Amino acid sequence: MSKSKTTIKNAHINWECEGKFNFTTGFGATKAESIIANYAALIAPLILYFFSWQELGWSWLQVVVAALLTLDMIGGVLTNSMGSMKRFLHTDKAVEVSWLGKLVGSKFLFPAIHFQLFAVPLCFDVAWSYAFFWYGAMMISIIVIHLLPMYLHRPVALLVVMMSIIGATLIPAPMGLEWLAPIFMIKLVLSHGVREEPYRPTLED
Q1: What is the Rg, in whole angstroms, of the alpha carbon atoms belonging to the chain?
Q2: Scanning 27, 173, 180, 196, which has the fewest C-beta atoms within 10 Å of its C-beta?
Q3: How many CB atoms lie within 10 A of CB 56?
Q4: 0.85 cut: is pTM over it?
Q5: Contact of 189 with 161, CB cutoff 8 Å
Q6: Is 202 exposed, middle or buried (0-12, 13-18, 19+ CB in 10 A)?
């Protein structure tokens, strides 16, 4: 059996990056993975708008910015955590992809270009230190994780996530977006940064 195709307790692990790379799903996405990657995150801004945002007196610009940030953060968590994307992010083989694919697959450059949190102090009533703190915490966490042995990546990433959830209750954030920074950390530190096995629903020949 190929080392890149392994079955453990009926869980089929396949590291083969076959076909064409997709920005939101990686390689070899199933129909279910594609639906989750492209549509599941749409639920979040709708729920937040009807149960939270419309009562805050935001302008339409603030609502649009909050919705885009929500889609990006939650969609990124889902996309980066899927087996089809993990297959690409953590493969040991050289894979032919475009410059965009190389950017997505970069351990450090991809997180480094995530300046979305700086839109928060730009559009909402919160200090710029909010964005600088969480961006710095994310980059430091990424660097530390990749300096550690791989067997420590997941627990350390989860420690970062838990500390972020606690920190979000202590660090001032705009009302209605208190949850944004921890999900930012989950997206980049846990979902993108931690290697996990890319499972498939059936064993491929």
Answers
A1: 18
A2: 196
A3: 14
A4: yes
A5: yes
A6: exposed
